[in-house]
Amino acid sequence: MQGQAQQQAYDRGITIFSPDGRLYQVEYAREAVKRGTASVGVRTAEGVVLAADKRSRSPLMEPTSVEKIHKADDHAGIASAGHVADARQLIDFARRQAQVNRLRYGEAVGIETLTKNVTDHIQQYTQVGGARPFGVALLIGGVENGEPRLYETDPSGTPYEWKAVSIGADRSDLQEHLEENYEDDLTLDEGVGLALRTIASANDDELAADGVDVATITTESEAFVELTNDEISTYIADNDLEPSEEDDEDGDDE
Amino acid sequence: MQGQAQQQAYDRGITIFSPDGRLYQVEYAREAVKRGTASVGVRTAEGVVLAADKRSRSPLMEPTSVEKIHKADDHAGIASAGHVADARQLIDFARRQAQVNRLRYGEAVGIETLTKNVTDHIQQYTQVGGARPFGVALLIGGVENGEPRLYETDPSGTPYEWKAVSIGADRSDLQEHLEENYEDDLTLDEGVGLALRTIASANDDELAADGVDVATITTESEAFVELTNDEISTYIADNDLEPSEEDDEDGDDE
Amino acid sequence: MQGQAQQQAYDRGITIFSPDGRLYQVEYAREAVKRGTASVGVRTAEGVVLAADKRSRSPLMEPTSVEKIHKADDHAGIASAGHVADARQLIDFARRQAQVNRLRYGEAVGIETLTKNVTDHIQQYTQVGGARPFGVALLIGGVENGEPRLYETDPSGTPYEWKAVSIGADRSDLQEHLEENYEDDLTLDEGVGLALRTIASANDDELAADGVDVATITTESEAFVELTNDEISTYIADNDLEPSEEDDEDGDDE
Amino acid sequence: MQGQAQQQAYDRGITIFSPDGRLYQVEYAREAVKRGTASVGVRTAEGVVLAADKRSRSPLMEPTSVEKIHKADDHAGIASAGHVADARQLIDFARRQAQVNRLRYGEAVGIETLTKNVTDHIQQYTQVGGARPFGVALLIGGVENGEPRLYETDPSGTPYEWKAVSIGADRSDLQEHLEENYEDDLTLDEGVGLALRTIASANDDELAADGVDVATITTESEAFVELTNDEISTYIADNDLEPSEEDDEDGDDE
Amino acid sequence: MQGQAQQQAYDRGITIFSPDGRLYQVEYAREAVKRGTASVGVRTAEGVVLAADKRSRSPLMEPTSVEKIHKADDHAGIASAGHVADARQLIDFARRQAQVNRLRYGEAVGIETLTKNVTDHIQQYTQVGGARPFGVALLIGGVENGEPRLYETDPSGTPYEWKAVSIGADRSDLQEHLEENYEDDLTLDEGVGLALRTIASANDDELAADGVDVATITTESEAFVELTNDEISTYIADNDLEPSEEDDEDGDDE
Amino acid sequence: MQGQAQQQAYDRGITIFSPDGRLYQVEYAREAVKRGTASVGVRTAEGVVLAADKRSRSPLMEPTSVEKIHKADDHAGIASAGHVADARQLIDFARRQAQVNRLRYGEAVGIETLTKNVTDHIQQYTQVGGARPFGVALLIGGVENGEPRLYETDPSGTPYEWKAVSIGADRSDLQEHLEENYEDDLTLDEGVGLALRTIASANDDELAADGVDVATITTESEAFVELTNDEISTYIADNDLEPSEEDDEDGDDE
Amino acid sequence: MQGQAQQQAYDRGITIFSPDGRLYQVEYAREAVKRGTASVGVRTAEGVVLAADKRSRSPLMEPTSVEKIHKADDHAGIASAGHVADARQLIDFARRQAQVNRLRYGEAVGIETLTKNVTDHIQQYTQVGGARPFGVALLIGGVENGEPRLYETDPSGTPYEWKAVSIGADRSDLQEHLEENYEDDLTLDEGVGLALRTIASANDDELAADGVDVATITTESEAFVELTNDEISTYIADNDLEPSEEDDEDGDDE
């Protein structure tokens, strides 16, 4: 009770530290991320895989309208987890940064540079008053100088680079699945499979083709490509993830 | 009691997260939507149907003054549920965006683009301080590239695309009615019937012609058309929704 | 007690939603309207009637200084109820809008357009921080395209169109009186009589000529005309509303 | 106790409504007016009389430095009650408005126009945040189109026109005195007498010549004229208001 | 206890009224004035005398650095009591106003005009948010049109004109001393004596020459002149105010 | 309990002093520094050594993405401890200052000048409202006029110059280790060894090559150089710090 | 307990008065000054001496980095006590003022003028909202018109001129030491000795040469000169202040 009352005293203000040096609003924004369905990124030698759980709330909702994976530039994609409307703001910000880079320097923005542009933007919302932090985490994947790169941004505005990473619901379980199954010499196909099996691992090892989005950026094409439902179905079948029956889940992704 | 006190600590601030990652002001704005009478959208192969429950509070109030459906552009309409004065702001915003698009690009704005312009505007009011969120949900329907499109915006600023959807009072019941009765190959006439029956389903399966607004945007005409009272009466009769006696209901759409 | 404490938590902030989706400051502004003496509007086939109860606090106060009905433009008038100083702001705003319309388009502003200009202005004060809502309701009446129109604005910024309507003290009783006595084919004379009898109905069916303001805008003249005390006295006599003795009421219109 | 606690919840904010539609800060500003010594205005057929109780705190204070009556323009004067420093702001504002009117239109500002300029200014301080209301009431008197006019402004920003009126301490007693003794056909001399007797009525029917300020604006001269101490002494003698002994009162006009 | 709790509810906000119409922050600023050592002003037929108690805290502090009397313009001086740093702001403001007057109109600013410029400036800090009131009172003395004038400004921004006045610590005792000893036909010498005896009256009728500042503005010279220590010593001796032994008082003028 | 309640009263505001003259938000920001893994700086006669503990949370995270040491300019580096996103802001600020210095003066910025630019920037965030302090400490090392210099910045904005210093977790233990082992005539090699042994001293005297970053700026090269993993491994072996087994620590560096 | 609760009610706001006319934030800023190690200023006939206790926290910290005495201009120096980062802001402000004076008037700024520029700047932070006061006191010493001058600034923004003064820790003891030992005809050498003995008096009459900074500005040179460690050692020896053994004190100067 004592501890709880003390916590309440510090977590109401947007931009202040608690006595133990924590920023509660940022930590609560991380909770908003956990409330979103999961997204997974896998970096393979042949390119980066982004996959997102997008199980719909209603059979009448267009699956394509649950946007979890976005093209940021020709050679870069972004998957999100958390507050959907916040994600749209950051993705628009990233796209503008990518365009500005092409206009100013005549070349594609580096994936690391793009990520840090975004995290600097996020950080401002955690330090300056008058706004709340962004309640969303992003996976930014792409090809830079011929190399596949995969970054995460969190609500504090910290950039992390990963071989394979999960954000959103069940993060610790999914990350554990990735750690147990990731290998450095994965092919792109194996990467897609690992991403799908990771998402399915929190869902009785089942996936519907229209319940997941998958995109890849290969070192060969250096292009953001979204997989079709048919392609995803093939991967689901190849990985034994077909659903036994239709889920009628009431997932709430914000 | 404990939980309640804890909740109070976080829901008074406009733009801050609760410890479990929720934005209470946005959730309360959703309650404002539920306090408004229902609007329903149905996408058919022949076009989009927007219908709105506008039962008046008093026999002396002009039914036309309860505005629930608005023309956004030649090829696009908007139905609303919730705080009426807020809806007017967003609809004006949408109209200006549509006009700007025609001026700048010489063509009609896409329905998806229009929707996302509106949801980005809504999101700002949930993150930046100094204002409250919009207490209204919108259905934005129209024709884009010859295809009917139907979108919902919610108070968080998230866009959703639907085949058929209900907003406002009794949403879960009405949505269930839509899910049970929607079919992909509806004609426009069947779509209007489904929309009216859905609204009536929460009202003892009865509707008065001046208690509902209906508008359509067909793929053929690509034009926003409001049905006359006579046309609506015919649909009401065809769908067996005539009221047995005059309601004297004290509906409160705000 | 529990409910009361919970309410207090949400009604102190200007622009935030309560857990059930209400804006308490707007609802309290509606209470400010109820604290003002009544105004009544009646739309007849021959024109619009605006009437206002302006019983004075003191025999030394000039009755003309209790302003309840104002000319907005040649063809439009406004009656108010509630916080007097707030009403003056909105009426000035309406007048400027009407002037701007004449300057910009060379024609009289439509009554509906004028009303919506005012309600959009009102809405801003309910959403953006730094100010309180307007504590006043208005009746805006006039002639548009040869048709009489009568609108109400409320503190939320919602416009309503009416055949006959009452704002201010005793609204529900007066509105009931209007509903029971209104007929669609009233002459202007009958409309004035109905308006006066409605106001008197909450005052022992008595009225003093200098205790009420009446104005009309007829379809024939399209001009805002205030009735003289003599004209009002005639109507009072014709409708059997003469006071039996002088009231010494301590009315508080604010 | 319950009621008291509830009131406290709403009267701390500057610009918000209480649940019963009241603006407590404005009502408290009215209390500040009551803390000031009284001013009285009387409109006669021959002109307007302004009189103000200015009993000094100390025999060493210059009586002329307790300013209660001010010239606003050649044809207009202002008496105040309440917070002295606030009164100075409003009087400066009124003077500037009068000058602007002369410069812009080449004629003296109307007394009603001048009053409403001032009340609109006052209203802003009751609606927009960042400042408190003005804690002062004014009597604005003058001649407009050959007619004497007498207005009151209150802290809410409402203008009232009066035949005779009192503001400040003991208002209800003084107003009752005015109502009992006012007649429509008073001469200016009788008006001055009534004003002085009204002020004296709350002070054992005694007045010192340097304890009161009197100014007149007659329809003949259309000029603001302050009475000399000798002239005031004559009126005091003529109205039997000479003090029996020197008061050593500790009046606090603020 | 009840009253105390109620008071606390209203005195924390900078610019709001209490239920009885008081501005607590202004009243507390008056307490800050009382915490300062006294200043005294005396108006004689031959000119104005300003005197200030400036007993130092430490024998190592330069007596000249405790500034209580300042030249505002050639013909005007200012004595202060209260918060020293606030006094410096107002005195700088007054000096700039005096310079502006000379530049704009080519003549010395009137003492009344100068005082009202300062009080209008003070008033702003009591009404507009974002700053606290000035915690200082000033005596502004000088010669205007050949006449000696002596004004006081208080933290509310009210100007008062005096024949003789005291501000700061022990005001009521010192003012009583002035009232008992002031005469209208004092010579300047007698005025200096009265001022010094008044200050000494709260200090066992003793004064040290370096514990008091004295300045005069005579109608003959129309010039602000500070008395030397020797001149002050003569006055002290002439008025029998020599200290019997050195005071080691710990006066706190702030 | 008493003391705790009192503390709470003062540590919620961003920029206010507590009764004992402390700025709690700054002290809490220092706690945020302690929550970060340690960084160590050692100044030797041959140059400055910066070393940082960067143990990763997950085997899938790229060690290079945990950024603790940054190049600020050719001749200057910065190591950080605490809130990572805040560190990025300050490092960007430092880089821009260094560039501006080269552009404006045509020469490299001095290390002391660079440090004070940064600390002045930090101080602003502790005094002016609207933002929280930076939750990070920096070590700024480089060569200035041929001399190695090593500075620390803390969240209050105070610059300190050190021979050897530790920031972040276990500061007091690590600083004690430095004090016991530092000698003025260390070679650069010995300096690197001391830095690594200091970091390892809080970790059972073990280090992994990819769990630590090391950079040097020598007086000879005047260039910021990051050591390769192989070079670090050699130092680890030479200092007997090889880990006996793989750590699976759950370090949380913000 | 009662008094304590009452105090808490007034000391949380930045710029408001308590009921007894105190500014708690300014008083708490004075506590921040007391938390700093002491600085001492002594004015002699031959010039001004500034001395500062700068005992370091750690043997590895560069003594020169604990900055307590700064050159403000050729002829002026500043010693500080309290919040180090705040001191840097004020010293930079003073330096800019001195430069501006040279540019604008072509001559060195007067010490009194410089001091008052600084105190006016400090005062703003105690009256206007949005920032906290400066938690630092300064001693500003120099030569003006051939005369040595020594001023103190405190957190309220009040300037004081002194013959000899101490700020920071143990002020009352050190000031008493100065008062007992100061003589008006000190030589500069004796002044340095008095300053050092005063600092040492709170430290068992011992001082280390690198634990104290000393600077002088003589009337002959009119130049700010910092004493070398050797020079200080000589003074320490001459005044019998050599430390008997090395102190390992944990002084905390902010």
Automatic annotation (TrEMBL), chains A, B, C, D, E, F, G:
GO terms for molecular function: threonine-type endopeptidase activity. Residues 239-254 have a biased composition (Acidic residues). Coiled coil: none annotated. GO terms for biological process: proteasomal protein catabolic process; ubiquitin-dependent protein catabolic process. InterPro entries: Ntn_hydrolases_N, Proteasome_alpha, Proteasome_alpha-type, Proteasome_asu_arc, Proteasome_asu_N, Proteasome_sua/b. Keywords: Cytoplasm, Hydrolase, Proteasome. GO terms for cellular component: cytoplasm; proteasome core complex, alpha-subunit complex. The formation of the proteasomal ATPase PAN-20S proteasome complex, via the docking of the C-termini of PAN into the intersubunit pockets in the alpha-rings, triggers opening of the gate for substrate entry. Interconversion between the open-gate and close-gate conformations leads to a dynamic regulation of the 20S proteasome proteolysis activity. It is found in: Cytoplasm. Component of the proteasome core, a large protease complex with broad specificity involved in protein degradation. Belongs to the peptidase T1A family. The 20S proteasome core is composed of 14 alpha and 14 beta subunits that assemble into four stacked heptameric rings, resulting in a barrel-shaped structure. The two inner rings, each composed of seven catalytic beta subunits, are sandwiched by two outer rings, each composed of seven alpha subunits. The catalytic chamber with the active sites is on the inside of the barrel. Has a gated structure, the ends of the cylinder being occluded by the N-termini of the alpha-subunits. Is capped at one or both ends by the proteasome regulatory ATPase, PAN. This is Proteasome subunit alpha. The lineage of its organism: Archaea, Methanobacteriati, Methanobacteriota, Stenosarchaea group, Halobacteria. The gene is psmA.
